[in-house]
Amino acid sequence: MANTYTQFNVQTIFAVKGRENILTSDFRPGLFEYIIGILRNINQFPLAVNGYKNHVHIFFELHPTTNVSDIMEVVKANSSRWINSNHFVKGHFEW
């Protein structure tokens, strides 16, 4: 159909496993930037990424050919790998 446009704005919130307050201000801004990069690399348009000590909010425009669960799987897997590889928390980090 000609001249058809879509815009899906999605907000997701996910928490640290056990809701532990381990997302410290030392690396939290870098984490948010890293998540923005992940979203851009998978053709999503991040509008806002923020959070606090135990959770993250992501507000983004969902590309119409993808689904939220696949996007969140990629975001959570890559961001937790980034946290673990940089040793930002003691022990093993999980969402």
**Beta-strand percentage?**
25-35%
The biggest sheet, with number of strands, parallel, antiparallel or mixed sense and barrel status, is:
3 strands, antiparallel
Q: Estimate the helix proportion, in percent.
A: 25-40%
Helical segment count? 2
Number of strands: 3
Q: What is the CA-CA span between the terminal residues?
A: 41 Å
- The residue-averaged pLDDT reads 96
The secondary-structure class comes to alpha+beta
Note the run of SSEs as H and E: EHEEH
How would you describe this protein?
This protein is α+β, with helices and mostly antiparallel strands and 95 residues long. It has a domain at 23-85. It has two helices and three strands, in the order βαββα. It has a three-stranded antiparallel sheet, with helices on one face. Helix 1 packs across helix 2 (68-85). The longest helix is centred in the last third of the chain and has 18 residues, at 68-85. The N and C termini lie far apart (41 Å). The model has no long low-confidence stretch (mean pLDDT 96).
